[in-house]
Amino acid sequence: MSGITVSGVAGLPEITPGASLAELIAAAAPDLADGDILVVTSKIISKAEGRVISADRADAIEREAVRVVARRGATTIARTRHGLVLAAAGVDSSNTAPGTVVLLPEDPDGSARRLRKSIGDLTGANVGVLITDTMGRPWRTGQTDAAIGAAGVLPLRDHRGQADSFGNLLEVTVAAVADEIAAAAELVKGKTDQVPVAVVRGLPELVIAADAGSDGPGAAALIRPAAEDMFRLGAADVLGERRTVRDFTSEPVDQAAVCRAIAAAMTAPAPHHSLPWRFAVVESEAARTRLLDDMLAAWVADLRRDGFTEDQIARRTRRGEPLRRAPLLIVPCLVADAAHTYPDRRRNDAERAMFLVAMGAGVQNLLVALAVEGLGSCWVSSTLFCGPVAAAALDLPEGWEPMGAVGVGHPATTPPPRPDRDPEDFIINR
Ligand SMILES: Cc1cc2nc3c(=O)[nH]c(=O)nc-3n(C[C@H](O)[C@H](O)[C@H](O)COP(=O)(O)O)c2cc1C
Asked: Helix, strand or coil for residue 358?
């Protein structure tokens, strides 16, 4: 029989700022041995490190969150500076004095490294250290513990390239062993904070040798890089992800992603159950050059008619550049053939307005869906000011009315954060 044992470490006192956790743990678990993994609830690390503050819980969440991922009623799921996504940005008001909240450790991997070193100095044992917190999971009911800090423990066990029992090559399996150990330790640690530490014995192969000269990659290795994360955005931050991007890298745009974004555009609301959106995807350099050059000529002609000097015209027209820099252009077009006609102008104008706002809804869907795909976009007005010229340059079918143009590509820069806007300033209540 081989196996692992998970033992709770009882008898630790209430932890206060400045407490030496290493001394307290070494005294409460005198038989620590090489290869053991010490699993420590983050809350006692926070308490020892003075991360208990007098603050309103909501204010503390706002300070700790770098991005709100989802929100419903009183529940906020947020991403922290560490890259963790968890309820209340890890701010906890349980097991702490009323009026105070416990914040996550500033640097959980650093805390784990310091604790490992101190335990080694005190006991001579080469242990691994995991710092854990309790998290809910999307799509799964209930919470479980996960590792937010690690030192001397390999957080991931990579099975890729190995064969299963049928000889099939494993292509994606990377076991999050640090999280598995954290969850196992939670089975013996109490929720009441009476047993905030557990010792897991029997996994010495995951513990890094004392003389390796490194504590390993830490729990930071468990944070999925944004570019690989298919679920990076939650319900609350998906709309904010769309920003006007005016500078793009030369990386080509995936046509399938564009197709999915156009499918999203076509789910916008529109009058009379109509489908008024069309999209000219300008792929070839020749088509793009013709469109942009023809539009430029039309714009210059307008400005000359307005009386601007050639110098002024040159300066103004330089602003058309985002479309030249974008790897792909999409010209959204309105086909309003489902519009009703009326004997009077008022109702015809209203009918036109209905189709124009539906077009805006469709383009917004397009831009948001592109952002979800990781693509930046810039919707510019240009074709709206010279519809027939743009339609001719693109040889658009009869009845397609260009509604601006969208430059699409991988963002080369991050737009500055949006200024705070108070919705109350935009609302009247009647
Ligand atoms: C119909 C329309 C036309 C626009 N035309 C231009 C334009 O000609 N040039 C430009 O740089 N941005 C243009 N924009 C983008 C706005 O400037 C941009 O949305 C605004 O600055 C807010 O920034 P955000 O999109 O990042 O929230 C246009 C936006 C809309 C909706």
From this structure: helix
Neighbour count for residue 110 (Cβ, 10 Å): 15
Phi (first) and psi of residue 46, to 5 degrees: -60, -45
Mean pLDDT, the chain, integer: 95
Residue 146: is its pLDDT beyond 80?
A: yes
- The total number of residues shown for the chain amounts to 430
Question: pLDDT (tens digit, 9 = 90+) per residue, 14-57?
Answer: 999 999 999 999 999 999 999 999 999 999 999 999 999 999 99
- Point out which residues pair with 147 in neighbouring strands: 132
The residue to mutate among 244, 302, 366, 367, having the most atoms of ligand 1 within 8 angstroms of its beta carbon, is 244
In sequence order, the 6+-apart residues with CB closer than 8 A to the CB of 21 are 15, 40, 44, 45, 48, 115, 118
Residue 172 pLDDT more than 80? Answer: no
The dihedral region occupied by 167, where left means phi > 0, alpha psi between -120 and 50, and beta the remainder, is left
Q: b vs e for 7-42, b when ≥16 Cβ sit within 10 Å of the residue's Cβ? A: bbbeebeebeeebebbebbbeebeebeebbbbbbbb
In angstroms, the CA 276 to CA 358 distance is 8
For residues 402 and 387, the answer to whether their CB atoms sit within 8 Å is yes
Q: Which amino acid is at 298?
A: A
Three-state SS for 114-159 is: HHHHHHHHHHCCCCEEEEEEEEEECCEEEEEEEEEEEECECCCEEC
* Three-state secondary-structure class, residue 107: coil
Among 380, 384, 420, name the best residue to mutate to test ligand 1's pocket (greatest count of ligand atoms within 8 A of Cβ): 380
Identify the bridge partners of residue 135 per DSSP, sorted by sequence position.
Answer: 144
